[in-house]
Amino acid sequence: MDQLRRLWPFVRRYRRRLLIGALCALAATAVAAMIPQIVRFAVDDLNTRGVVLDRLVQYGGLLLLAALVEGVLRYGQRTQIIGTSHLIDFDMREALFAKLLTLDQGFFTTMHTGDLMTRVTNDLSAVRMFLGPGVSNLLGSTLLLLTAATLMFLTNPMLAAIVVLLLPMVAVLFVVIGGRMRAIFRKVQDQFGEISTRAQENFSGIRTIKAYAQEDAEIRVFREANERYRALNLRYVLLSGMLWPIIGLMLGVIGAFVLLIGGRMVAAGEMTVGELVLFNAYLAQLAWPVIALGWTVDLYQQGAASLVRISEVLQRRPAIASPPDAPRDFVVRGEVEFRNVGLRFSHNRSNGNSSGHHTRASSPADHPLVSGAPEWVLRHISFRVPQGSSLGIVGATGAGKTTLVNLLARVRDPDEGQVLVDGHDVRTLPLDALRRGIGYVPQDTFLFSVPIRENVTFGRPDATEDQIAHALAVSRLVNDVEQFPDGIDTLIGERGVTLSGGQKQRTAIARAILRNPAILILDDALSSVDTHTAAEILAGLRSIMKGRTSIIIAQRIATVKDADQIIVLHNGEIVERGTHRELLDLGGRYAEMYRRELLRAELEDE
Amino acid sequence: MSRGQFDDDEILGKAYDATLVRRLGVFVAPYWRRLALATALMFGGAAVELAPPFLVKQAIDGPIAARDPAGVLPLFGLYAAALLAAFGFRYGQTYIVQSVGQQVMVDIRTRIFSHIQRMSLAFFDRNPVGRLITRLTNDVDALNEFITQGTVALLGDLVRLLFIVITMLLLNWRLALISFIMFPAVMLASSVFQRIMRGVYRRVRQRIARINAFLNEQISGVLVTQLFNREEQSRIRFAELSRDYLAAQLESNRTFAVFFPLINFLSVTALALLLYFGGQAVLADVATLGMLVAFIQYTDQAFQPIRQIAERYNTFQSAMASAERVFRVLDTPATVVDPEHPRALPSPVRGEITFENVWFTYDAEAAGPDGSGLADTDDRWVLRGISFTIPAGQAVAVVGATGAGKTSLVSLMARFYDIQRGSIKLDGIDIRELRQAELRRHVSAVPQDPVCFSGSIASNIRLHDESISDEQVRRAAEIARAAPFIERLPGGYEYEVRERGSNLSVGQRQLLAFARAIAFNPEVLLILDEATSSVDTETEALMQEALERLIQGRTSIVIAHRLSTIRHVDRILVLHKGRLVEDGSHEELLAKRGYYYRLYQLQFAEAGELRTEN
Ligand SMILES: Nc1ncnc2c1ncn2[C@@H]1O[C@H](COP(=O)(O)OP(=O)(O)OP(=O)(O)O)[C@@H](O)[C@H]1O
Ligand SMILES: Nc1ncnc2c1ncn2[C@@H]1O[C@H](COP(=O)(O)OP(=O)(O)OP(=O)(O)O)[C@@H](O)[C@H]1O
Ligand SMILES: [Mg+2]
Ligand SMILES: [Mg+2]
Q1: Domain locations in chain B?
Q2: Which among B262, B456, B563 has the least Cβ separation from residue A604?
Q3: Which ligand lies nearest the alpha carbon of B403?
Q4: Is CATH 3.40.50.300 correct for B353-613?
């Protein structure tokens, strides 16, 4: 029941609808309870033969009227209660998605996309099933149970007492079986997330899988994941399949007692046959609601298990957020400073899953951190980039370059020290204003499967045609775009799969410069672009970046040599800094890198 | 590029339900024994369930009317026995049917997944991952309903209905006919609702698929959305999709809200009629009162399966809507297929590659099977009349401006796509005459976008190929120069790589992809598509050395923008806008003073510039 409290914020908005629905349910139940009553009178009348034809017409008419009223009320009940469950479903889906949009990379690296998708769709519908049909049933059944019980008491207290005493047995069973069911269902859903994850990773990495002819192996692994899912589901069915029949059994037992004892009572003249028939009718009326209760228990267990999975996302606090007291209209000017910045990632170790390749879909809690403090990825980073100047960053693979610029855009926050923009710690600035001031070309290009135009104007939907044309020109994308069938309106595949590597990178560059940012970050953004085009792009950038701050990460000296300031990262620390000239004179790593490049050029020269 | 519209989850036309059911039947057929058993149990259950009302009638008309309490006892015993039997039958039936349903789901899922695995890359270019996942998850789930609701249970309802009808007819056919008056009305109502629900369910399916596709993309690209302040727009778009889904759901709900009360109303109508006419019968002594009471119960009982059937019919519709989509995937033929009678490569494979007048476009549909659909001058050709031969063991570089078609050229060698004109041969055999698995066993490619999977570092190198030992993994990593960084990771080779390698640097991912290619130890052909573009120059130089040793005796093709990384090659192919414009050794091409010369000059000038500054 604890989980239910988490639903309250979503349910609250619809109190009125639910109330109306509940009233409809109440009224419908009352009407429904009248139907056997009418039948009873008819039967008793017939029994005493005191009935005439027009009485029968009356009874029939009453029955029809009751049924009509009940139908209208049921319509109300369903549209209100189940309709509300769809509305809540919608609200929760929106809330989940909105939450996902605010969550940080720390969260997304620990979760699997496929599993997250399962939570937003599959788990949500489990919750909806409980809220809608489940609650509706619960309500209807409880009312029906209560009225039937009351009427039974009115008819024959003695018999009714027996029934009421026996009913709690059913409840106990529900609780016992239900608890087990929920525990298993959580596993079922986790495994379902795993299947979804398997498929998701496979389809996204299909090129690699095909290149290594791993299709059969992938099919095997996928089948195994499915078999595990089946096995778990069977364990669930073993319990849930019992609910219905067992209720039937219980009710039957109760019915038998009623027959036995009622028969004696009738024989003893303590009860009329009509009363016994009536009692039986009420008992029959109990069957459906009690079965429905069993079903509701099933839905509740599933919904509760799923709700936990959903709450894991909804309750998650974004690690990166605007502070509440952030200045309102802040505009980035472009001065950047790092003060003694340090950062470490908490590392998780693989489960050593024997199937290798893939590990189970996991909630963050499943992975205990490897003991011992994680290593510093960045340490003692201090530098200042005055507004309008440029910074080049070079360093070996894995030195921490990407991590460093990510701190500036607050993809992560440092564990020690401060990152300052225009003299303010970025953690005190409004997040959206900070990011609005930054044009970031990430190392890992991500494009959306929308037309190229929308990708380019992604950070600035209101850009004019001229501005777009200019961005395309600077990023040297014009020629390519001209060749596309629909030009700039050509739709591209997911992640930009239908573009060449260089085209993707240049689209990302165009996207960043169209923002006209105060700070431009290029993270190895020319790696897939040929030298000739790269040189043109750099020249273009130099002219538009006049007076703006730029940070350029590169593996080639030629890309950074003109920067006002260059830092060399090594193992997460700045080991050299200065201008190109100064660094060459220093004769350290940078000079060595430079020599290596020169040497190659010379070799080629021969 | 797949020009124009991408496949969408449009609402499909009229479904041929009978065909769909038959095709689903194929998946269920292997389990007919178990289903037959379940059916037998169900029959037993239905028969046993008839007993209680009959026993009640007996009790009331017999011992109770005769005021003989002791006479109730044997009936009581029978009653209890019937109950226990009913429990056993029902539970057994439910469990068996559910277990078959689960098994069939495994089969269908695996089948869809396998089918998708066989599709060529063109299919993946067109279909968003989220949509494919919907087929595997939500749609298959809906199919499960077909099995749990559409087979034994449906049969069960029909049989129960039949039993009740027969019993009623036998007991008193007049009263029975009165009870049945409403049946035609029920059928009419059901068929009207069914028609409405079919459309509604299709919309529900279509819209959930759209939500999934959008969701998948948004989750993968959430960082970009955040960095570019697009959260609001994404939310609005998502709300639109979600609202469409909501609308379909509400529509379905309203339909049900009318349908079920209507059926209920019809059942009460039947009751009223029974009371009216039956009452007269009792008065006329044509029927006993006990009989009438039993009939009232029977009518109620008869409407239960009817209600159930109506409901099942509806869930059935939902399953059909999914089945359509699932079969549409299964019916999509793979465009790159293995030949019926594959030829074997001569062993040992030497690795000679020949391109003969190869024309290729990603728009295979417009081009038609023989490429006659597109004029030679059409922009859509990505490769235009490429011919060359790479003798076994030669190291070749492909250079050219971005978008020239380099990646396309090498993906053709692994037969990721089929060409429209010309032929590609490995050791003189057209690669279309080989099995794809066979071909790819001889080819190892490091793609331009290195992909990592979630799992350990080791499993990223060996994928699912268990024949690659830990030792081999280690060696491959060492050769690829990935070992130094791996060993520094906590856990080393057991370090858990996250989806897409998000907890590795991009250069590290490239090193891993390189190690993977080495671990798979291609017999003849090694393809590196900008395999070192994001790696620092020091590591790159070391990789270069390793590579030079590795390609001894192997044919290798390297794509690189930095000319310095291709100095070891024997030969250079220059691509320009899909044409092979130059072909020759470094010296020959320089002497030609063509495209390569200019490219070279440019990098040389850059280096020269650096030097003079010094
Ligand atoms: N899957 C695809 N579907 C449709 N068009 C594609 C696809 N992949 C590439 N293209 C198009 O084919 C052309 C050649 O692309 P290709 O990837 O072969 O270029 P490339 O020479 O490798 O370029 P780069 O150096 O930028 O990687 C480009 O215009 C690109 O847009
Ligand atoms: N999300 C993460 N969780 C844990 N470790 C990470 C994560 N992202 C990066 N790392 C580790 O931090 C180190 C620095 O990574 P980073 O991406 O900053 O390197 P880089 O200098 O950009 O390298 P490259 O030149 O290859 O792009 C690497 O060792 C990497 O494995
Ligand atoms: Mg990086
Ligand atoms: Mg390419």
Answers
A1: 13-172+317-333, 173-286, 353-613
A2: B563
A3: 1
A4: yes
